[in-house]
Amino acid sequence: MNYFPDEVIEHVFDFVTSHKDRNAISLVCKSWYKIERYSRQKVFIGNCYAINPERLLRRFPCLKSLTLKGKPHFADFNLVPHEWGGFVLPWIEALARSRVGLEELRLKRMVVTDESLELLSRSFVNFKSLVLVSCEGFTTDGLASIAANCRHLRDLDLQENEIDDHRGQWLSCFPDTCTTLVTLNFACLEGETNLVALERLVARSPNLKSLKLNRAVPLDALARLMVCAPQIVDLGVGSYENDPDSESYLKLKAAIKKCTLLRSLSGFLEAAPHCLSAFHPICHNLTSLNLSYAAEIHGSHLIKLIQHCKKLQRLWILDSIGDKGLEVVASTCKELQELRVFPSDLLGGGNTAVTEEGLVAISAGCPKLHSILYFCQQMTNAALVTVAKNCPNFIRFRLCILEPNKPDHVTSQPLDEGFGAIVKACKSLRRLSLSGLLTDQVFLYIGMYANQLEMLSIAFAGDTDKGMLYVLNGCKKMKKLEIRDSPFGDTALLADVSKYETMRSLWMSSCEVTLSGCKRLAQKAPWLNVEIINENDNNRMEENGHEGRQKVDKLYLYRTVVGTRMDAPPFVWIL
Amino acid sequence: MEVINGLNLKDTELRLGLPGAQEEQQQQQVSCVRSNNKRKNNDSKEESAPPPPAKTQIVGWPPVRSNRKNNNKNVSYVKVSMDGAPYLRKIDLKMYKNYPELLKALENMFKFTVGEYSERQGYKGSGFVPTYEDKDGDWMLVGDVPWDMFSSSCQKLRIMKGSEVPPAL
């Protein structure tokens, strides 16, 4: 029952780009479903095992851009074995067979092989954009195929992947006719880079906006590159060691001054801090600064740099900045929206680099702050209550106190009240990570107040199944729940099986769930894949007479419309 | 055994005694910390603080990606040779904040004393002279440049013995 012809409706739909909105539109009526599916160009699949490529293509035959996510989030911290799954090859094969006009592929935590990259590069004439985040399984040979065969390549964006660097000539595989690059990010490559090929490529890419180099690109090469690319908006510096008086440094200084469009700076993978002053002239334009890999930059050099960055919206930093440094950020960066403070001393030197004071200072000084990831040594309820009062607009709040189970260091109390204040005040909170000493009480608060919460990460927290139940019953919008080392068991797991149909996935490791509990769940919910990851002793669970009561080490369950996956390795049991 | 970046840190740890001597404290690898750990008795305060327990390594904690862990530049090992010593040692330059600390550690390691440093005359008094190889491959006297500059450019250390030291130094 459309008042307008389909073409008009389709045109209106063109303005709706978010996949959540498009999903909603498609539910209105059959006619809209049909119009929407033929006009959908960008498809987002949050779990590659929830659907299969055939069904994807049947529904969206005109897709141009596909985003796929594979392994669960805890794979980032080595909790998921490499061979678990998330293979992209079947997807690329299916897309290639269907002759869909793929232009963009964005993958996160997937296993990508050189074979898949080669197939990708040959199968889609208009392929423009490849973004790989936290992927693994491929080498620079795969990159060479992309470079050589994708004639209209616009973006090659490799973020934090594990790439086997064959130190080859992949950069020289870009043909001389390739002049369309807008994004080139190879910061995560460990090996040598053909600097001549790189310079020639940058020189013939007038549209290049984002360039992120790896550590093999030294300062003198950087200087030459900047001269070729004054239009750069987003720069990742590789190696940055040199003598401030050297000729390359002076050349770089002059080139940087001309980069008036530069807004985002990152890298400094090996850095000589006293050379940072070359960037001071453009700091007042920076909206994004990522120094989280720059272990050498701290103290006065860092502070001086930050003091120039008055327009900063996003800052990623190491905790060596200290509380005092964060106070400088708080008084300088009034536009700050996102802050990430990473731990620098992971060998346990015991430096109390940042504490609750830094967090409070930031919350007081930066009214626009909505996303924070904060690794620290200690926290107090009082500080969290203050932070909640100062910043009721948090969308993402991730706090990681490095020592598990650590209480409020002043009162020795659990941090329930502090986190409770956060969820109560921050009505738009979508993502929360907890740490420190926590009882079931914090989960009561979360269930009660965190109405918009979509992702919750729990580690070493809670007392009984009640904790998990508060969350499952209370958080109506929960999508991803990941729990480790917490005393939640079968009772919580089985209380409301239908809840998992509303969620993307649940991860539980080193908890109290048993094999029989998981089996019961799998029985009750055939539309769920219930996976047990059992690396250590493949057959121990079957043979043991008490098999039902054995605790499951790692449980990963997710809703799916395509049933059990066929590519699981032997140590993954799908119940 | 703590292995980071393929380096067995215990082997290269700075301590008295020959390398390979027995370890008293083993580091345990545990896959989780069960909840019974948390219920610490709050009101038992110890008069003399006990030595901190051996750090247990928890898999996947803290939740930081491995490439961030690898990038941590808190280790900066250089080889140290001493003329006449049968084998070389390795030290982590990042463990020291200034020259006196480094020299003291070297003195302990090789059982010698370094002379007194002066800009004009180098090290006088003991016959041992600490030198280092910088990024350009040149052998320099330890102590001439500011500590930060030294620690970031030092590739190797060599303690030269008096008889080999040219008279000009």
Automatic annotation (TrEMBL), chain A:
InterPro entries: COI1_F-box, F-box_dom, Leu-rich_rpt, Leu-rich_rpt_Cys-con_subtyp, Transp_inhibit. GO terms for molecular function: auxin binding. Its main location: nucleus. The keyword RNA-binding does not apply. One of its GO terms (biological process) is pollen maturation. The keyword Secreted does not apply. GO terms for cellular component: nucleus; SCF ubiquitin ligase complex. It holds the Pfam family F-box_5. It is found in: Nucleus. Residues 4-45 form the F-box domain. This is F-box domain. It comes from Arabidopsis thaliana x Arabidopsis arenosa.
TrEMBL record, chain B:
Keywords: Auxin signaling pathway, Nucleus, Repressor, Transcription, Transcription regulation. Its main location: nucleus. It is found in: Nucleus. GO terms for biological process: auxin-activated signaling pathway; regulation of DNA-templated transcription. The keyword Lipid metabolism does not apply. It comes from the Eukaryota. One of its GO terms (cellular component) is nucleus. Residues 18-72 are annotated as: Disordered. Residues 75-162 form the PB1 domain. The keyword Repressor applies. Belongs to the Aux/IAA family. Homodimers and heterodimers. Aux/IAA proteins are short-lived transcriptional factors that function as repressors of early auxin response genes at low auxin concentrations. This is Auxin-responsive protein.
